[in-house]
């Protein structure tokens, strides 16, 4: 299934009311943010909320208190559940599903904004989605890619928008890849739809929600 056909299929399901809460997750640089933005634009920002979960990742001062068991010389990355404020995220998802407004968390790189509970569709995007109960979502989509592609995307994003050096991004990519394979990759099996975007392709490897 080509990407445009896939997006239109999701749109039709959302438009008919069959899909109200979508979860989109994957490792950093997998293309999940782009897919979420495309869906949000397609369904209409007046009809859907986009809840980005990066703001629910705990900052370094908290994560520095622990170390990954298999990588004692590395910092904890977002590949591990303990790096996420999952209780607050689940609360906010349930509030929006119940028709209540929420204010998103403010970070140095992102201002707080109000999401309206009146909008019928909710797209939740970010690594945190993998660690949440599947019952929160009508469908969960997981994306992944090869190391070279994710590094190129990280360099484009983090250097330009988060004021990080190329050397820092490259070093962190190795740590993230190590921990992704050890802790996060297994969560791909939980997705209803699994998409491989290696080398900037779009290949649906598993689709248990609807057929091609």
Automatic annotation (TrEMBL):
The record's keywords, sorted A to Z, are:
Kinase, Transferase
UniProt entry tagged with the keyword Disulfide bond: no
| Native source species | Streptococcus cuniculi
Which InterPro entries does the record match to this protein?
Answer: P-loop_NTPase (IPR027417), PRK/URK (IPR006083)
Q: What is the lineage of its organism?
A: Bacteria, Bacillati, Bacillota, Bacilli, Lactobacillales
Q: Specify the Phosphoribulokinase/uridine kinase domain's residue ranges.
A: 22-199
Name of the protein described by the UniProt record: Phosphoribulokinase
Q: Name one GO molecular function term.
A: ATP binding
On whether Transferase is a keyword of this UniProt record, the answer is: yes
């Amino acid at each position: 299934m080509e990407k445009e056909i896939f997006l239109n299929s999701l749109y039709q399901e959302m438009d008919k009311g069959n899909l109200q809460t979508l979860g989109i997750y994957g490792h950093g640089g997998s293309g999940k943010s782009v897919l979420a933005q495309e869906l949000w634009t397609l369904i209409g920002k007046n009809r859907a909320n986009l809840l980005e979960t990066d703001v629910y990742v705990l900052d370094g001062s908290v994560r520095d208190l622990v170390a990954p068991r298999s990588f004692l010389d590395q910092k904890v990355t977002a590949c591990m559940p303990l790096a996420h404020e999952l209780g607050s995220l689940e609360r906010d998802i349930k509030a929006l599903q119940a028709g209540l407004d929420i204010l998103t968390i403010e970070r140095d790189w992102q201002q707080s904004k109000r999401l309206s509970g009146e909008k019928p569709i909710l797209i939740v995007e970010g690594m945190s989605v993998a660690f949440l109960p599947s019952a929160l979502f009508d469908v969960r989509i997981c994306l992944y890619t090869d190391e070279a592609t994710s590094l190129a995307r990280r360099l484009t994003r983090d250097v330009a928008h988060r004021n990080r050096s190329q050397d820092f991004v490259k070093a962190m990519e190795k740590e993230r890849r190590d921990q992704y394979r050890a802790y996060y990759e297994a969560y791909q099996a939980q997705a209803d739809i699994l998409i491989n975007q290696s080398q900037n392709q779009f290949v649906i490897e598993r689709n248990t929600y609807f057929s091609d």
